[in-house]
Design a protein that fits this description.
Blueprint (H helix, E strand, L loop, with lengths): L2 H17 L11 H29 L14
Protein name: Transposase, Mutator family
Function: Required for the transposition of the insertion element.
Keywords: DNA recombination, DNA-binding, Transposition
């Protein structure tokens, strides 16, 4: 977020707070900030997941389907 967007968010939040409106929800002041946070968090999680896959391919697969299995009858 740019400094201008942050300033607008502060003003909107203060206006909604003083008027008794909800700060959360679809039209809340915090909705754009929450949306941006969630997008960045999901992108970071995906990047981490993909980098783990790259590391895993070099180190070998720990769960390659080979292992001792027993069946109780």
């Amino acid at each position: 977020m740019t400094q201008e967007e942050i300033k607008e968010l502060k003003e909107k939040a203060l206006k909604q707070f003083l008027s008794g409106e909800s700060l959360t929800g679809k039209d809340g002041a915090f909705a754009p900030m929450l949306k941006e946070f969630m997008e960045e968090a999901l992108e970071a999680e995906m990047s981490s997941h993909l980098s783990d896959e790259e590391k895993g391919s070099k180190a070998g697969n720990k769960r390659n389907g080979k292992g001792k299995k027993t069946l109780k009858s």
